[in-house]
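Thread title: Can someone regenerate the structure for this chain?

I was given the following input by a collaborator and told the matching structure tokens would be attached. They weren't. Posting the sequence so someone can regenerate them.
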Amino acid sequence: MKPEGKNPAKELYQQLRQRSCEELWAQEVPRFDRAEEKERAARVGLVRAVGVVFSESGTDAQKQQAREWLRVLLQDPVEKIRRYAMAALPKLGAGEGDETALLELLQRAEGERERKFLGQTLEKIGGAATLEEAASLGTRAEQKIKASVARSTPTTIRLDRPLTDFAGLRIHLRGRRGLESVVQEEAQARLGKIARVAAVHPGLVILEPLKPFSLGDLYALRCCGSVAFVPGATKHTDALAPLIASPLSRRVLQTFTAGPIRYRLDFTDKGHQRGAIHQLAAEVYRLCPELLNDAREAPWAVEVHPSPEGFAVELTPRLSPDPRFAYRQQDVPAASHPPLAASMARLAWKTAPRERETIWDPFCGSGLELIECALLGGVKHIFGTDLSSEAIEITRRNLAAASLPAMPTTLHACDFRDYAQVPGLTPGALSLVISNPPLGRRVPIADLRGLIGSLFSAAVTLLKPGGRLIFANPLRSDAVVPGLKLHSRQKVDFGGFDCRLEVYTKTGE
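Best answer:
Regenerated them for you:
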């Protein structure tokens, strides 16, 4: 009698999982093929091991051998062996003949259990031929197979097409908690004739459309992290599917999508809810078969968020790379989040918009703050320093990719405290110092307080009277800095911890 809780097939798989393709093929596969039916059933863990090991380390020829072996096992008289073989096949990629073999097995499947597992395999590798049998596999399998086939047709998000019928729609601009005022100000400045700000909540600015708009109009906003369309909210989960499949949702998705409409469904506050997601996706498909839930590279995310009304449905385009920050060719560890860099630049511009701005980022990293400032216009000269010469080169490449107007640019690999060795960084030369310095979280800083003190000192020396310092301050200190006047301070979520975004002006004393 086996010990309670032991699974022989799983234990054997764990052992064989450590073997090489060559060992499995030369020793274990022949032993399995020679064995009697009872022993083969007991050693079925080998089938799973072959699927995993060959998919991870096998050559193309070895994978083809393994696929042919698994295809033979689909004819095995033991249902368990057939089931393991059909589960292992997708790991090796669909080979020529696999779909045909599975569909032939479907015609003679022994009971609903085998049909269920065949459906799960065909969901992953089935093509046009499987679609003809999809209805017999159930709603879930049918829509997953349609989604799989739809992946072969290019789908793109359309930025230029206007949405003309938007009655009842709301637009959610989500971003870092603490930056709502910046997102709101930018939305009012850029979209004042297109939409109005309807409400503001922590990390969320809600817009009401006033005129037809395109997705490109919304992606002119640089300070929010994401743009989502909200067709409505409901207190009852059984009303979610009709909301996702509503005429308004379909108008949004059809207007902004060229190609099949595939989306990834998620509940943002319920953790892992696979069963609930499958049930909801199946109901959406029943109501509107053109909407296909697909976890693989779907161009849309459909998320269910908690709201005062119960649950709000958000339709979010998944654009990668983000067209707003296409200049970001490379990055450095702990670099600024692009919308955060854009928000810092807008704060600096809002504090005292200037012409012929001279800017320095003492810790330029990948150059995002410098680029976002330059994109706002009026920049005369850019200075960037960083300890890392690699970061300086990345900044240089990103600046070139941003297609900025020609301007003098001085980038130098050095400790920012050695600014005197950088040509042009002289007392009173700057109108703006902007930076997201090391915060001591990912990379320990031996004397963080001393580093921030040195930053204040450098800003006092290099800024002209009226010049500004804006930076992310990890220290909780309200001490007065001689020569600088605090203009504003706001607590911002920096990805799991709060930091203070501070703006100072040079007093001229």
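The first strand starts at residue 156 and ends at 157.
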